[in-house]
Each structure stands twice: as structure tokens, then as C-alpha cells.
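R.M. (postdoc): so does anyone remember the format we settled on? I'll just put the C-alpha cells first.
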């Protein structure tokens, strides 16, 4: 049983017949990529696993405890989520936003410590946004905002990282840097699940893959076995050419 596990889980995608129940466990050290076409339910799955929306059926366990039995704060001490899109609830600087990652560990009136501030600084540096610490987040570019969101999750550094499109808005260098961070956190014993649109990032960085089909079908397993060109062509209804670079497959869409 992994640090995050789903048993008989059916996600609630509006208007869809119930799909294949998911039975999977995300173990420490694993990086799961969730792949599927637009509307397949990737975000819905992540939000369900985070306890933000109810499932149609099944059970989710976090560290062996049913999610339904945990209070929100207990969940936030073990699990963090980066949303695909962000809205600013209220004006906040980059440093203040990253500090939100420490809130699950602080009691109501407890002030953040020097150690918390140090974690924020280190996270901002790791995500290459330390120079933006005093800027209001709504003034940032899309890629800068994405890196601040990742820095906030790194400040939280929970056992389970759920990230909806980690490389959204990022240039090539920062895509690679963020995926490298995911790899490092997995090596440090975290369990990660990432929604990805880029097959090549999945092939390069994921240990496990879950393929979600628009009709609710799904299959999952080790990345090497799941990233089979025929299966991916059916998933995306897109012909693919495959070459190998640096020991990993590179998928290139081709026209008929
Ligand atoms: N609140 C809602 N009301 C109605 N339909 C919804 C709602 N939320 C999600 N859906 C639908 O559920 C389906 C799954 O959405 P979801 O965002 O999980 O897909 P996704 O795989 O993450 O897609 P994308 O790749 O475009 O991000 C979509 O068809 C979406 O329109």
C-alpha cells in the first residue's frame, strides 16, 4: 500500500458513464505521469485524490488512513497540490505566497520562524524566483507565476506532490529544471503524481504512467511498459513517430 492509494476509485466526470475503477498505489520515490487527451479527467483525478471533490465510488488512503477521516489541515501536512490555473484571492508578494507552504505546520496564532523564512528563501532560489521576492504575484509573467507555485509547494514539501501540468508556461530551461526538481524530491522519498501533456517529459522523468481515456477507460503501470506507441496513438488519436535520444523514447506527432 503506497503513501497515496486508490481502491476502486471512480472519478466524477460530469455526463460520463462510470469508467474503469482505479486501483493504484503511489509509493515514495515514484513519479507518476497522468496522460490523456483534453477532457479525459486528469485534473478531476488530481482534485479527487486531494479530497477537493468527491469520488463516485471507491476509497482514497493517505498513509493508510482514509482521506475522508482526515481533517483538511492533516491532509495539507502530507499532501500538496499545484493547480493548473491560479487566481489571486488577495494581493500578496512572491515571498508571502511561498510562505503559505508553511501554514499547514503553524498553529493559528503562531508566527513563522527564521527556519520557515529560510525554507522560503531556499525554495525561491531553487525555482529561480528569489529576485522577485517583493513583487506582487499578479504582476508576474505566466512562467514566473508557475515557478512561484512550484516554490510554494517546495516550501510545503509534503510526502505527496500532486501537480497539474508542472511545466505550464515554462521555457525549455525551466521545464527541465522543474522536472529535475520533481526527480530530486522523488529521490528524497516523496511520492509524485503529475498531469502531463508532453509525452517526452513523461518518458524522460516518470517511473509510472496512468493513461486516461475520454470514455473512462484507464490503464496504468511502469512507464516503460505504458509508453507504447500504439497505445499512445489510440489515446490521442494521433499518429506518432518514435526515435530514441539519450536512452529515452522521443515521440513526434506526424501527419497522415
Ligand atoms: N464543474 C464542471 N461542470 C461540468 N463539466 C465539468 C466540470 N468540471 C469538469 N467538467 C468536465 O469534465 C471533463 C474532465 O475535465 P478535466 O479538467 O478533469 O479534464 P483534463 O483531462 O484535465 O483536461 P485538459 O487536458 O483539457 O486539462 C471535461 O469534459 C470537463 O468539461
Amino acid at each position: 500500500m503506497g503513501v497515496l492509494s486508490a481502491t476502486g476509485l471512480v472519478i466524477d466526470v460530469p455526463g460520463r458513464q462510470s469508467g474503469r475503477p482505479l486501483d493504484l498505489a503511489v509509493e515514495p520515490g515514484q513519479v507518476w505521469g497522468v496522460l490523456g487527451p483534453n477532457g479525459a479527467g486528469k485534473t478531476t483525478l488530481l482534485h479527487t485524490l486531494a479530497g477537493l471533490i468527491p469520488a463516485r465510488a471507491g476509497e482514497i488512503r493517505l498513509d493508510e488512513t482514509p482521506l475522508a477521516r482526515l481533517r483538511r489541515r492533516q491532509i495539507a501536512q502530507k499532501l500538496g497540490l499545484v493547480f493548473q490555473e491560479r487566481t489571486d484571492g488577495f494581493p500578496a508578494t512572491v515571498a508571502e505566497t511561498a510562505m503559505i507552504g508553511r501554514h499547514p505546520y503553524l498553529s493559528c496564532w503562531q508566527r513563522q520562524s527564521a527556519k520557515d523564512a529560510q525554507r522560503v528563501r531556499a525554495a525561491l532560489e531553487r525555482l529561480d524566483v528569489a529576485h522577485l521576492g517583493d513583487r506582487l504575484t499578479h504582476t508576474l509573467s505566466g512562467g514566473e507565476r508557475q515557478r512561484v507555485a512550484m516554490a510554494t509547494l517546495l516550501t510545503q514539501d509534503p510526502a505527496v506532490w500532486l501537480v497539474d501540468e508542472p511545466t505550464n508556461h515554462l521555457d525549455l530551461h525551466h521545464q527541465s529544471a522543474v522536472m529535475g526538481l520533481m526527480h530530486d524530491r522523488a529521490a528524497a522519498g516523496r511520492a509524485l503524481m503529475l498531469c502531463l501533456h508532453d509525452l517526452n517529459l513523461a518518458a524522460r522523468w516518470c517511473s509510472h504512467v496512468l493513461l486516461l481515456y475520454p470514455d473512462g477507460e484507464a490503464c496504468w503501470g511502469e512507464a516503460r511498459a505504458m509508453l507504447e506507441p500504439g497505445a499512445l496513438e489510440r489515446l490521442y488519436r494521433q499518429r506518432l513517430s518514435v526515435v530514441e535520444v539519450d536512452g529515452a523514447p522521443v515521440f513526434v506527432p506526424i501527419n497522415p
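R.M.: ...and that's the designed sequence above, right after the C-alpha cells. Also worth knowing: The domain at 4-89+157-253 is CATH 3.40.50.300 (Rossmann fold). The mean pLDDT is 94.
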